[in-house]
Specification:
This is Glycosyl hydrolase family 3. One of its GO terms (biological process) is carbohydrate metabolic process. Pfam families: Fn3-like, Glyco_hydro_3, Glyco_hydro_3_C. With about 725 residues, the chain is an alpha/beta fold. It folds into three domains: about 325 residues, Alpha-Beta Barrel (TIM Barrel), CATH 3.20.20; about 200 residues, Rossmann fold (3-Layer(aba) Sandwich), CATH 3.40.50; about 120 residues, Immunoglobulin-like (Sandwich), CATH 2.60.40. About 30% of the residues lie in helices and about 20% in strands. The strands form seven sheets. Strands 11-8-7-6-5-4-1-12 form an eight-stranded parallel β-sheet. Helix 2 runs antiparallel to helix 13 and helix 7 packs parallel to helix 8. The termini are far apart.
């Protein structure tokens, strides 16, 4: 349709039809309309047939045959023939499941993420979906929050690269979304990852400067990549819930950032303005959300019940309703739904695309690159002739897909035990422990198996029922029964290797002494077990690097690499009292941002700058020699950090500004160069101007965020 035709369609719509376009219901209502009174949290949800008839979009259901039938029935009842939008959470894959986003971040490969999201989009589109609720661009610093699994970590620069890559992968290039792609929806706007105490849906309180400097960049990267939708956050921003926050949505997002796409609430968030205490009733909640700029009310009846009456009373401007409806119609037009409401979907096409063997092969490659070797006291890799005992609650467990793999097939997922059987000539198995409960019989069985093996591989972790939305934890240690299993394994005197399956950074301080090696596997997806065995056996050399720090204790949280300098920084090696420190543990995390081991080793030398004084024009070159000092090929992620030593406001101790991922043969040395540009030195000042400071800057180049002071470089920015 042309823009004129869309405008004409809008003018022909009744108020009820317009309100329907701004309402999203779950897919169950379209197939079971006679029994449609579920409860969602606090909200009773009675939906009648007229509401369904007028609605504009559908949530959380997929399948070519199913969605075609829903669309067909809807168009029969729709007076103007306006098709439905189908949206769902396709976070890290549709049916072919890739590692959780926190694991994807550990690949440090945006191009890889773009490719896998292209696969996700093809599978989702073939199943009839139009929109994916990804990427999640929330900056995360508190692993108690269950939704850290959906983020790519604690760094705004890196998160932005991954957010943009996800948008490009899902949507493709150009303004129109191809039939083998889906629209992307960046979430959750804004600063949802800063929920106090790591408790989901909790208060967020931050300054405007902090919002702009740390939290907005990743959302902006998604906007710059052309994302079609933005989802509001559940939390407050400057004491106003995001869903009713006009300054956030209209002034900042639509005005300053010039986003002209669709804004959708999160699940029930419009209705939740009432318990938030900023709306007295449904009508006030609907009025505030629409006036703030929310176009689609997801799974709440506030718009459905209230907008027409508000218009009749002249309590809201009809222009606000029309502009919201027009944006929804424009999105449907960009998807080509007016020309083909089914977008060429067929069961045959779906069957040919979904779960294709090439997709699964690529899922294994991605999982291999996502896993992080946290510890290795010369016990890995294992040889195929080693007599291995695989023990633990994840030894024969199909729960590898992660919480948001709603269309994945866990019953078809290879377990670690099955993968071991194809790699090791001599392998034994025992459960040893449930995930969270001790079982004496299982322990006894495991002890007997341990006695017969040369090496013990413990498959430990947390299930997907302990992570994701609404699953915050006050303590993020492994269950005591798993720690006991590790202790018993260590007491045998045999090498103990832990393969860890989890969706958040864990406090591993108690586990670490019992393990000679720890491989962080995350919830690794459809081919995660095969990937883990490929790394444990040495077929693949680990290359993953953390993008979120692992704390030493829950009480250390939040702990992150780019913290602000304090007035009393702890001198290296000092135990003096009157400095910013804990008296019972080090300040540093157990495993820091950017950290990850390899089966080879790398050395850094000859760090140099092209100048020690710079006026900010052109660029400043940093170079370093990186050498593979081990015996096998290896992949290293060379990381560039910068510290502004004296700023107008307090600045972080270091900030990631660039990185390069390289492959080196044994003994090979390569000179790596980075270009420092003036924009890398800019930040939001106290008056919210975006500028740099004259003065000294420190440069760190290393294989993690940790770099000794003597291996840093300094230069001065001298503005003319």
């Amino acid at each position: 349709m042309t823009e004129e035709q869309l405008q004409a369609l809008l003018q022909e719509m009744t108020t009820a039809e317009k309100v329907g376009q701004l309402t999203q219901f779950a897919g169950a209502f379209y197939s079971e309309q006679e029994d449609s009174t579920p409860v969602t949290g606090r909200i009773e949800f009675p939906v009648d047939e007229e509401m369904i008839k007028q609605s504009g979009s559908v949530l959380g259901v997929a399948g070519a045959t199913k969605l075609a039938a829903i669309q067909r029935e809807h168009l029969k009842k729709s007076r103007l023939g306006v098709p439905l939008l189908f949206m769902a959470d396709v976070i890290n894959g549709y049916e072919t499941i890739f590692p959780i986003p926190l694991g994807l971040g550990a690949t440090w490969e945006p191009d890889l993420i773009e490719k896998l999201q292209t696969i996700s989009a093809k599978e989702a589109a073939s199943a009839g979906l139009h929109i994916s609720f990804a990427p999640m661009a929330d900056l995360v610093r508190d692993p108690r929050w269950g939704r850290v699994m959906e983020s790519t970590g604690e760094d705004p620069f890196l998160n932005g690269l991954f957010a943009a890559a996800t948008v490009r992968g899902l949507q493709g290039e150009g303004s129109l979304i191809a039939k083998d792609r889906v629209g992307a929806c960046v979430k959750h706007f804004a600063a949802y990852g800063l929920a106090e105490g790591g408790r989901d849906y909790n208060t967020v309180d931050l300054s405007e400067r902090e919002l702009r400097d740390k939290h907005l960049p990743a959302y902006e990267a998604a906007l710059d990549a052309g994302v079609k939708l933005v989802m509001t956050a559940f939390n407050t921003v400057h004491s106003i819930p995001a869903t009713a926050n006009s300054a956030l949505l209209r002034d900042l997002l639509r005005g300053e950032l010039q986003f002209d796409g669709v804004i959708i609430s999160d699940f029930g968030a419009v209705q939740e303005l009432i318990p938030h205490g900023v709306a007295e009733n449904e009508a006030e909640a609907a009025k505030k959300a629409l006036e703030a700029g929310v176009d689609i009310d997801m799974m709440s009846l506030a718009y459905t019940h209230s907008l027409a009456a508000l218009l009749d009373k002249h309590a809201i401007d009809s222009a606000l309703l029309d502009e919201a409806v027009l944006r929804v119609l424009q999105l449907k037009n960009e998807l080509g739904l007016f020309e083909d409401p089914y977008r060429g979907v067929s069961p045959q096409k779906e069957q040919a695309i979904v779960g294709h063997p090439s997709h699964h092969a690529f899922a294994q490659t991605v999982a291999e690159k996502s896993m992080v070797l946290l510890k290795n006291d010369n016990v890995l890799p294992l040889t195929k002739e080693t007599t291995v005992a695989l023990i633990g609650p994840y030894a024969d467990n199909q729960d590898l897909l992660g919480e948001w793999s709603i269309f994945g097939k866990p019953d078809q997922t290879t377990t670690l035990k099955q993968a071991f059987q194809g790699h090791f000539a001599h392998a034994m198995y025992a459960t040893g422990s449930h995930l969270y409960e001790r079982d004496e019989a299982l322990l006894t069985e495991a002890t007997m198996v341990m006695e017969q093996a040369d090496c013990l591989v413990l498959a430990l972790g947390e299930g997907k029922d302990r992570s994701g939305e609404g699953r915050s934890r006050s303590s993020i240690t492994l269950a005591p029964c798993q720690i006991e299993l590790a202790r018993l394994a260590k007491e045998t005197g045999k090498p103990v290797i832990v393969a860890l399956f989890n969706a958040r950074p864990l406090d591993l301080t108690e586990l670490e002494p019992y393990a000679d090696a720890i491989l962080e596997c995350w919830h690794p997806g459809s081919e995660g077990a095969q990937a883990a065995v490929a790394l444990l056996s040495g077929e693949v050399n680990p290359s993953g690097k953390l993008t979120m720090s692992f704390p030493r204790a829950t009480g250390q949280i939040p702990v992150y690499y780019n913290a602000y300098q304090t007035g009393r920084p702890l001198p290296p090696g000092s135990n003096e009292r009157f400095f910013s420190r804990y008296i019972d543990i080090p300040n540093e995390p157990l495993y820091p941002f950017g950290y990850g081991l390899s089966y080879t080793s790398f050395s850094y030398s000859n760090r140099s700058l092209s100048a020690v004084e710079w006026d900010g024009s052109a660029s400043l070159t940093v170079s370093v020699d990186v050498t593979n000092t081990g015996k096998i090929d290896g992949v290293e992620t060379v990381q560039l950090y910068i510290q502004d030593l004296v700023g107008e406001v307090v600045r972080p101790v270091k900030e990631l500004k660039s990185f390069q991922k390289i492959t080196l043969s044994p003994g090979e040395t390569r000179t790596i160069t980075f270009e420092i540009t003036h924009d890398m030195l800019q930040y939001y000042h106290s008056d919210l101007t975006y500028a740099s400071d004259s003065g000294q800057f420190r440069v760190y180049v290393n294989g993690s965020s940790v770099c000794e002071q003597e291996n840093t470089l300094t230069f001065s920015l001298v503005k003319s």
